[in-house]
Amino acid sequence: MLEARSLSLARQSRQLFSHISFMLRPGQALLLEGRNGAGKTSMLRILAGLARPDEGDVYWQGEKISNSALFRDDLLYLGHQPAVNLELTPFENLRYLSALHGDNPQSIAEILAAVGLAGYEDVPSGNLSAGQQRRVALSRLWLSNSKLWILDEPLTALDVRAVAGLEKRFADHVANGGMLIVTTHQAAILPQQATIQLRLGEIQQEVES
């Protein structure tokens, strides 16, 4: 379980969010919403342990994430930057990640097809568009056994087929007891009955889950 307790953050004298608390349990997704500049990316980075709030703490299985080696093992975070080795092809990037994650029932070609990269397997990633590089990064979701996924606008530049593949992957992850935190303008992609919503910039900032 992931628990946020009274998280607050200000930037340049502007309060982004204040005293936000919620719990995310196995088999749940959290949709993080808010206007541009409301602090969504900052919140994701705090929840991933990459930034500190002005007040409050984040806990994983009852332990502060700053002290938890288990949290680092259980987390998959994908931010705005694709974090792809541009010198490698999509196939080579995924083969490297596959070696890190161990055996996977799907072939690399199947995974790349699921994110809309069929036909681009052997093109150097540096020659791909920004959207295609994003898809290479997203392909690691098919390899990951991490319990908690934190994803910042994962649907950016994806076509309809890739979005459908991602929707199924999200549903499978949550159905298998995984947890998911996402910022996106396409809320319908998340498993509706398992999703709680948190909108930054509004008075009500404590989420019942």
From TrEMBL:
Pfam family, one: ABC_tran
Domain ABC transporter: 2-209
One annotated GO molecular function: ATP hydrolysis activity
GO BP term, example: cytochrome complex assembly
Stored SUPFAM superfamilies: P-loop containing nucleoside triphosphate hydrolases
Keywords recorded for this protein, A-Z: ATP-binding, Cytochrome c-type biogenesis, Membrane, Nucleotide-binding, Translocase, Transport
Source superkingdom: Bacteria
Descriptive protein name: Cytochrome c biogenesis heme-transporting ATPase CcmA
Native species: Echinimonas agarilytica
UniProt gene name: ccmA
